[in-house]
Amino acid sequence: MSIKVIIAGFKGKMGSTAVDMVKGDADLQLVALLDPFAIEKEVDGVPVFNDKADLVGFDAQVWVDFTIPKVAYENTRFALENGFAPVVGTTGFTEEQITELTDLSVQKQLGGLIAPNFAIGAILLMEFAAKAAKYFPDLEIIELHHDKKKDAPSGTAIKTAELIRETRSYKKQGAEDEEETLGGARGAEFDGFRIHSVRLPGLVAHQEVIFGAEGQGLTLRHDSYDRISFMSGVNLGIKEVVKRVQLVYGLEHLL
Amino acid sequence: MSIKVIIAGFKGKMGSTAVDMVKGDADLQLVALLDPFAIEKEVDGVPVFNDKADLVGFDAQVWVDFTIPKVAYENTRFALENGFAPVVGTTGFTEEQITELTDLSVQKQLGGLIAPNFAIGAILLMEFAAKAAKYFPDLEIIELHHDKKKDAPSGTAIKTAELIRETRSYKKQGAEDEEETLGGARGAEFDGFRIHSVRLPGLVAHQEVIFGAEGQGLTLRHDSYDRISFMSGVNLGIKEVVKRVQLVYGLEHLL
Amino acid sequence: MSIKVIIAGFKGKMGSTAVDMVKGDADLQLVALLDPFAIEKEVDGVPVFNDKADLVGFDAQVWVDFTIPKVAYENTRFALENGFAPVVGTTGFTEEQITELTDLSVQKQLGGLIAPNFAIGAILLMEFAAKAAKYFPDLEIIELHHDKKKDAPSGTAIKTAELIRETRSYKKQGAEDEEETLGGARGAEFDGFRIHSVRLPGLVAHQEVIFGAEGQGLTLRHDSYDRISFMSGVNLGIKEVVKRVQLVYGLEHLL
Amino acid sequence: MSIKVIIAGFKGKMGSTAVDMVKGDADLQLVALLDPFAIEKEVDGVPVFNDKADLVGFDAQVWVDFTIPKVAYENTRFALENGFAPVVGTTGFTEEQITELTDLSVQKQLGGLIAPNFAIGAILLMEFAAKAAKYFPDLEIIELHHDKKKDAPSGTAIKTAELIRETRSYKKQGAEDEEETLGGARGAEFDGFRIHSVRLPGLVAHQEVIFGAEGQGLTLRHDSYDRISFMSGVNLGIKEVVKRVQLVYGLEHLL
């Protein structure tokens, strides 16, 4: 039997990509769409709602949310209170809100997922990097993005570095008498290791973690070319939350 | 307090590299060397034995064995019976022998390790590849070795492929109407995915597992340049077996 | 002063991308569009023609052609006869046609370009690979494409291999007693070296040429993500043909 | 007929590797060895000299020199004056010395080579990078070395960057509002592009130049694992200088 899915924020980029994904999977059934400003009454036979209040008592198991930070918390709360397991890609939740929603999910015996990143590959890379750092404390991160990106290093690189810090024994890498003849050559320092940010046209979002040890090397790389890559994570989230009885923060907890 | 280590087969390539490694680690203490054909009575103050029988009652915790298949089983048995936790890099054990030695270890409440591969990086790569294959069933393996290598694919590639098969949902990859205009272009087929073997001078032993999914890719690569890379695995083995009460087959069980 | 450009076949995928490219470059000026089936009379102020005969005497220097094989030869001939330097991306010319058009260009003292491939990066890779093969006769090609691709190896890989064959001293690579325990592992053989074809979802069109020699390796890789990458080649073609007095076949002759 | 070779500085690391290389090539014949402090009178039948004066009138065509900066200039001068084409790997020549030796070579109608770098792969990479930069002005250099290396970026990276500067149209890369949230993340700036230095155990000497453009990327990588890689450059040098009538500075002039 297929899982019945509501999608909130279905007119945004991520929301509309999610609509296509759900429609394309025979194990899922799209049963309702929500957007306060939508004019259409239905899309390909699926009813469109402007107000979430109208979804009270609706027959569905999962609430996918790609709305905006301002309403996502209220939406997630509403989903849990009405028996829909939430799968939320909107960011901006505070720690207090996550704790509160987790408690509510336990009380309601509902699974749920709030995920800042749905790219399974990126999450696996982080997990693998953190494990490898236990055995290979010498490593450097190279992240590569398109040249319109403003911040360096990328948020994903910082997140990866933080996870590595938890498992790696601290070590200041590089030669003791190391010297930069051109400033910045050795990259940014984070906990004794280095992060390098490459920015070039044509690139999208890529990350490499290189580990080195006597006589060997281990390299982990993730390439992200398109927003569609997030959809396998959303799909996995939908199929996992219906089996769970507690909301989690981070897709890694469902892998 | 340092761990007291005996090394059997100390005159071979791996054995002598192990001698250097143990001497170079302040947490380990080399206390005896064994080789039936050694003439010297000691090496840098460490006594050399020709007959393992003379080591009965010797004060040591770990028995490192890089001998030859013919004697390794007897040596491992002897080690367990005399209270030395074995760390064995010699290959050629039968399944029956491993079961028997494992049972003996449990009875003696001793840890132990028999490992066909001590390269931690290679073992992590296999573990990561098997996990990633759960979520990314589309993958190809490229292994690259020096051009004197006789067999293709490499043993490590086959082992990796077998581990992937256990976690991956079977899928025949590639286009249905795929056609090789030059025979062999698509590589060797293994359980619906492909393995490619590159042979070039200058290379040593390298392996890449490439996963692809809509909009993203994940690549795992291990480079092995030198036998010395095995020593971090031997070192880890020594430090782990003294904390355990059962022999294991495969370094992955200590990671 | 800007170069005045006519685009034939402006309604196709390549043609319309070329329209955008010409409009976006201040050094170029789009002066006419041609398509036998176009209904519109102009596009953003640029006149649209259905019949090339109406372009006799038109004030333009370059004729960009992304039509179909059936008409491309006639179009190129027409361009040369009427003083427009042709830049042609349509394929399917015979050797006789190319020779004839080249002769005509010399007679008219006009530059011109017929190019089966406008990706500058792919062409540089081929040129570099052919040069490197002079010094490094040991090499393998790995080409990677999306998993809907039917033929293996790719046309670009074959072309690259042919160019390499011209500069490389023949050598049968790999160990003499090499053995495939899984058929196809060593890839396709071409002139004594190997070509491997990887097919995975998420990939677009990528090619790697790996050279190996004692103690060193050289790797050349081209990644093609999008048709837009061809436009820098078309742009270069337009700017170069106006300086030349002979038509060439292949963008490499203008690099 | 084989080329007769003298090797000066035959007891050093490079010199002795060169001895092995010459002996291993049937097209070359080792006829004399020179070292002021050598005690032996011959090595495998090849006469050893302590004083270059004793080599006046000796029957040889090429003088390979891996001595020390202090004597290399005098040696090279001596070689040219006595009819031996010099192939010199010793560094430290001044521009004036190179000019003077080049003039002398022309006068004597002798070829010759003074090369700061004999790794053909590294030199090809520089040449290719400089050519690609003409068409792809957006690029970054990543150089990777063992973690005992003191200076960053490497000398080879600086040299590569200088060659690129000669062909590339100046451009300040990266987003205009780019911001480093961790200092150094974007690497060292050189003429508007970036250089990143990675330092890890297990690595030897590697360099990657990554070019990016709309819809495509081009990556050039050289891996140097062992000093032996220089020998193919020395070999090529010996075989080329006997065909030339002028000394050149830099192996690239013989490629």
UniProtKB/TrEMBL annotation, chains A, B, C, D:
Amino acids binding NADP(+): K41
First-tier enzyme category under EC: oxidoreductase
Reaction catalysed by this enzyme: (S)-2,3,4,5-tetrahydrodipicolinate + NADP(+) + H2O = (2S,4S)-4-hydroxy-2,3,4,5-tetrahydrodipicolinate + NADPH + H(+); (S)-2,3,4,5-tetrahydrodipicolinate + NAD(+) + H2O = (2S,4S)-4-hydroxy-2,3,4,5-tetrahydrodipicolinate + NADH + H(+)
Sites where the protein binds (S)-2,3,4,5-tetrahydrodipicolinate: H146, G155, T156
EC number(s) reported in the record: 1.17.1.8
Residue numbers annotated as active site: H145 (proton donor/acceptor), K149 (proton donor)
PROSITE patterns according to UniProt: DAPB
GO MF annotations, alphabetized: 4-hydroxy-tetrahydrodipicolinate reductase
Pathway(s) it belongs to: Amino-acid biosynthesis; L-lysine biosynthesis via DAP pathway; (S)-tetrahydrodipicolinate from L-aspartate: step 4/4
Pfam families: DapB_C, DapB_N
InterPro entries listed in its UniProt record: DapB_C (IPR022663), DapB_N (IPR000846), DapB_N_CS (IPR022664), DHDPR_bac (IPR023940), NAD(P)-bd_dom_sf (IPR036291)
Keyword Ion transport included in the entry's annotation: no
Ligand binding (NAD(+)): G9, F10, K11, G12, K13, M14, E40, G89, T90, T91, A115, P116, N117, F118
SUPFAM superfamilies: Glyceraldehyde-3-phosphate dehydrogenase-like, C-terminal domain, NAD(P)-binding Rossmann-fold domains
Compartment list: Cytoplasm
Role description: Catalyzes the conversion of 4-hydroxy-tetrahydrodipicolinate (HTPA) to tetrahydrodipicolinate.
PANTHER family in the record: 4-HYDROXY-TETRAHYDRODIPICOLINATE REDUCTASE 1, CHLOROPLASTIC-RELATED, DIHYDRODIPICOLINATE REDUCTASE
UniProt similarity note: Belongs to the DapB family.
Protein name: 4-hydroxy-tetrahydrodipicolinate reductase
Lineage: Bacteria, Bacillati, Bacillota, Bacilli, Lactobacillales
Protein encoded by which gene: dapB
